[in-house]
Each structure stands twice: as C-alpha cells, then as structure tokens.
Amino acid sequence: MKKYNISVIGGDGTGPEVVDEALKVLEQTKSKFDIDFNFIMNDLGGDRYLKSGDLVTEADVVELGNSDSILLGAIGHPDVKPGILEQGILLKLRKEFDQYINLRPVVLYPGVETPLANKTPKDIDFVVVRENTEGLYAGAGGYIHYGTDKEVATQESINTRSAIQRCIEYAFEYTVKNNRKKITLCAKTNVLTYAHDLWERVFYEVAEKYPDIETDYGHVDAVCMWMVKNPEWFDVIVTDNMFGDIITDLGAMIQGGMGIAAGGNINPKGVSMCEPIGGSAPKYTGKNVINPLACIAAASMMLDVLGEDKYANKIENAVIKTAQKLDSLSAGKMGMGTSEVGDMVKDFILNDEE
Ligand code: IPM
Ligand code: MN
After folding, report:
1. Does ligand 1 have an atom closer than 6 angstroms to the CB of 277?
2. Ligand 1 lined by 90 (C-beta under 6 Å)
C-alpha cells in the first residue's frame, strides 16, 4: 500500500476549518481504500507571524520539502499589512518549491448555479494553466526618490523562454493526458510586443509537436468577454501569471463561486501544494458557515497530482454529489454547516461501491 506524507497548513481565517473537513474526507478514503496518509501539521500563517515574526523558516522548508505534497487552507490575516503574508508565505512557497504551474479547473458541476444565463455544465468545462513563478510576480522593480514628488515606481514583467516553455509543454501534455482537444493561448500580443511575442512564438513551436491538438489565441480582454459570453469555446487555456490570476477569479464565479474553486501549485517532479482559491474569509472564521467543498476538491486534486487519480475521482464524485444537495455554495447559505457538508462528502466515500 502506498503511504504519503502530507504536510498540512491550515493557515489563517477559515483555512483551518476547511482543511479539517478535507482531512476528514482523506481519513475516510484511507480507512476504506488501499491508500495511506501520514499528516504533518504545520502552523505557519498570520497568527504565528504576529507572535514570532516568522514567515517561512528554514525548518518549514526542510519539513515541507520532505513531504510528498502540501495541502493549504488559506493565507491572509486582517491584522497583517497586505503583501507581507502573500509575498512572505504563499509566493515564497511557490518559488521555493518551484511550483511552476498553477492549475485551475473551471468546471460547472451539475445542479450548481452559475450566474451565466442559459449555460449548463456542458458549456463550462475548461482548465486554466497559469505560469506560477515569474511575469509580474517575479518581484523585479523598485523605487527611485521614494516618498517624494519625483517618485518613480517600476515593476517589470520577467519572461524567460525556459519558464514559458515548461509551462506551455505542461499545458499540451495535460491536454493529451486528460483527453482534451484544444489549447488557447491567452496573452496580449498587441501591446506586450516583446514579452507576449515570446510566449506566442514558444506556443506555436511547442504546438508543432502536437498536431492533433487544436490551437487558438485570444487577447486577455477578449478572453474575459468570451468566458462570459461563450465559455464553451474553451478547453485548456494557457497564460502568464498575472492574467492567470485575473481570469481564474472570473472562472471561479462562472463555476458557482469561491466555495467550489480549487487550484494546484504544481511542480511535476517536486513538492506540489493544492489549495482552495477563495482566501481566508476572516469574517466567517469559527462560525461553521464556510463551504469546505473547495478545500475537499483541492485534496482530490492533490491525489491526482500524486498519480492517485482513482481516489482523486472518488473524492471529486463525492464533492459533485454533495454540491447538488446544498441550497447554495455561498458561505452561510448552504442550508447546512461546514462540518455537516464535510460529513456528507465523507459518507459518500464511505458508501462508495468500488
Ligand atoms: C491567488 C491569489 C494570490 C495570487 C495572492 C494572494 C498573492 O490571488 O492564488 O490567485 O495573486 O497569486
Ligand atoms: Mn488570485
């Protein structure tokens, strides 16, 4: 039986609550099926930072680096100035473990409400492959004449051929492996005439190795428009870090909201980290009202990344069945509490006929 060491970061706000529900489901999966997990709890996050000043310590890096995967709840604390935890923890971990892909499925599950009129699950079913290490997130820039009238601030988008290439190659391989048919490059070649020209050239170079996959191109502004008007046009979208950040929040909304949206920070040969993408939602903390399905879906994605697609699918199916039973996917409107939703997913696993 395969045994995985999973580092678990509950993090801030509602993060620990939703992670608890995901662990409940993983425990049930472990006791019912032929798979084993050892959970290593890590307390990094805003509370620890406020107490000790520590963001990601050397000891964290060693511990997380020795695990097979990381499950993350949320990072973001109302008492910490914006940017510190995001840069110092979330982006730091993505870079430290070279999690160069941010994989975000945008799938409308049956019975879930979308704000798009007349769209059904067959229309909203695509995946965004977001580059996750560079672009505007590289941290290149600075100030001149800080705080004066002459002040200048720069923040450059860094685009290396090697990082673009590994991202685009991942997107094509993902497309083949998941039996999808078409990849759309989402960029802005009409304005970012250097950076996105490079993306476009690499995209079509890689595409030559995959003659069976249809390729398409959309400027990011138009992609936003089509995601709302004709989401059925998309199958796999590959894009840079900043655009990927923006379009996946739009994606989360059309698939029914943050309550269901999961993402994976993936290093295909290293330690990946899956997370619900909704953030720490501090105002709901401790109220048993937040939707844990996104975090449970993140746990399913984690198993998929570990190569355990059979069990990943079981958890995903249990999430789909549970989503159909909720009044709404939004916090406080589900018709049941956080832990009841977790119990329901767990019971679907318990009663799963192999
Ligand atoms: C996300 C988040 C992060 C990002 C923030 C919190 C740094 O919005 O995972 O999409 O911009 O990548
Ligand atoms: Mn984001």
Report:
1. yes
2. yes
From first to last of its 354 residues, the chain has per-residue pLDDT tens of: 899 999 999 999 999 999 999 999 999 999 999 999 999 999 999 999 999 999 999 999 999 999 999 999 999 999 999 999 999 999 999 999 999 999 999 999 999 999 999 999 999 999 999 999 999 999 999 999 999 999 999 999 999 999 999 999 999 999 999 999 999 999 999 999 999 999 999 999 999 999 999 999 999 999 999 999 999 999 999 999 999 999 999 999 999 999 999 999 999 999 999 999 999 999 999 999 999 999 999 999 999 999 999 999 999 999 999 999 999 999 999 999 999 999 999 999 999 986
Phi, psi of 258 (to 5 degrees): -65, -20
Q: Which tokens sit at 292?
A: 């844990």
Let me know if domain 114-255 sits in CATH 3.40.640.10.
no
Ligand 1 nearest atom to the CA of residue 75, by list position? 6
CA 30 to ligand 2 center in whole angstroms: 31
pTM metric for this prediction: 0.97
With a 6 Å cutoff on the Cβ, whether 86 touches ligand 1 is: yes
CATH 3.40.718.10 residue ranges for the chain? 1-99+274-354, 114-255
CA distance 339 to 126: 29
CA of 245 to the centre of ligand 1 (A): 6
Query: Is the separation of the CB atoms in 137 and 91 below 8 Å?
Result: yes
Q: Give the residues across from 266 on adjacent strands.
A: 101
| Domain 1-99+274-354 CATH (choose: 3.90.1170.20, 3.40.718.10, 3.40.190.10, 3.50.50.60) | 3.40.718.10
